[in-house]
Amino acid sequence: MKEGEIVLADLLNSDGKFKKRPALILKVLPKYGDLLVCGVSTQIHQLLPDFDLLLSTQSNDFQTSGLIKESIIKLGFISVLPTQFIEGTLGNISKESHKLLIKRLCDYLMK
């Protein structure tokens, strides 16, 4: 598993139930190799401009993501997962987009 990859995993939703969904690997955490991930959603109306990242069907990131619908990478939907929760890799986003998401998250946390 690599940072910037989009994987398929069971993520805990706000209703307390697990749902299989795409997630972006933000960071591989030290020592045990757990993954800091954020969920990917097709609910475009939930996009938070200048925080989340829109993967429109015309974007290069969409083409390499392995996703089948326009989606948003939701920085507000973060989880830590052991690697055994990952069912497979769908694709990836560019290093530039990955760095942009990390910067946005860090900037928000430092406010």
Tell me the CATH topology.
SH3 type barrels
Radius of gyration: 13 Å
Overall mean pLDDT stands at 95
Strand content: 35-45%
Strand order of the largest sheet: 4-5-3-2-1-6
Number of self-contained structural domains: 1
Secondary structure: elements and pairs:
Elements: E1 5-12, E2 18-28, E3 35-41, E4 53-55, H1 60-65, E5 71-81, E6 86-92, H2 95-109
Walk me through what this model shows:
With 111 residues, the chain is an alpha+beta fold. The chain has one domain: SH3 type barrels. It is built from two helices and six strands; from the N terminus they run ββββαββα. It has a six-stranded antiparallel sheet. A hairpin with a 5-residue loop joins strand 1 and strand 2. It is globular. The termini are far apart.
How would you summarize what this structure contains?
The chain is built from 2 helices and 6 strands.
Task: For this entry, give a set of tags.
single chain, 111 residues, six-stranded antiparallel beta sheet, 6 strands, 19% helix
